[in-house]
Amino acid sequence: MSVHHYIAVDLGAESGRVMLGSLAEGNLALEEMHRFPNGPLHLQGTLRWDVPRLWEDVKAGLRKVALRKLPVASISVDSWGVDYVLMSSGEPMLRLPFCYRDLRTKRPYAEIAGPHSEAIYEETGSQFLAINTLYQLAAEKKFAPELFALTERFLMIGDWFHFLLSGRAVQEESNASTTQAWNPVTRMWSDQVIRLAGLPRSIFPEVVPPCTRLGRLTPQAQAETGLGAIEVVAGCVHDTAAAVAAVPAEGDGWAYLSSGTWSLAGMELPSPLISGAGRAANFTNETGVGGTSRFLRNASGLWILQECRRAWANEGREFDYSELTLLAAAAAPFRSLVNPTDPVFLRPDNMPATIREFCRATGQPQPETPGQFARCAMESLACMYAGLMTQMETVTGKKLPTLHIVGGGSRNALLNQMTADSIDRTVIAGPVEATAIGNVLLQALTLGHIASHAALRAIVKASFPVETFTPRTASRWSDAHARFSKFG
Fold first, then answer.
1. Global pTM?
2. Can you give 15-32 as a three-state secondary structure string?
């Protein structure tokens, strides 16, 4: 029996993993070899990513794989989008990269997006968020001009790790398409948008399409990991693109929700859909496998619950997610709702206090117990998902009877059932590890071990279980939707 082995490095905002994928006879097995924490550093009033430490953790995971003495075919990295590393020819990293939640982008966003929103959307079809790479780079130029003058190139996080592995400094397209400086129609950097932002065109790197072979592991990386000269593959470097590639769906009539710290809800289209209605609804067009377009909205996700959990831990009260889910299930329904997309929830000092203040300001009972906070967060997300599904159908003119939920949030049965009831549609949950699965199988597709994207999805369907949720109490959500709609 022929077995192919691949390494997936999956970097998330909360944690990173090195995964070993083994493909045999149309079935994929995944094994977590190394997990390590991640999170922004608070450094003199800024938020940064400690990417040198992440690199050391990645190498530690690769050494564990090397000890297996397996014939590994390739390695690929995926990561969150929008953030990047500034580089020069003599320096692989000019300083610790900023976290997208840092506050420095507020002014550049207002100055660039405010007067130029129509032109920017026509060029990029990209959702307007202050965290976008375009505004982060503009902030670098505005607030650190001396350092920015030294920059010869930027690479986004996952692509920078590919540079460390392969020595090749290029940007993969699914990741480039999250910057709001990429034209998804011409599939080139938008010179017009770059000029509007006042940025030098020279720092924008060469872009390669999904499923590109970058070369072999460098001699230095081989020496530091114990691996041989395996191939380095840029599959879909943006983690959501990798997850969407692994959605076990067939035909038309489905939407996806990548559920984690962020909620990314969208559709897979054959080409970008750039329209006034899309701009008004703030949908984005990002690149997927085979030239497809991921038409989606990036909204807040389990971040609200994650931050509540962190605040309680700081007070000495530790709750795991399964415990919070049980407490939420026992709490009274529809007591309090919040708008997860409200800017007050983006960078709160204390999430429970911010939730209480939102409820007080909107005339609702304030949550008092962890169960009430968790129920509030989950029901609010479910209400938000209903609005997103309706907007997608309106903007695209397509009916979407099924929602596929992948990622960490797909293991939360309570939230999945709430979502099915709120959107009044079938929800298919799983696989949880969609990003790592997509990472591995896109390597297999790149190397010719899988014949097509359809074959890739068939492997996902055969290898990993899913759970179906059908609406049970959809009629009970109408009052919640009416209340939620008033939050703007």
1. 0.93
2. EEEEEEEEEECCEEEEEE
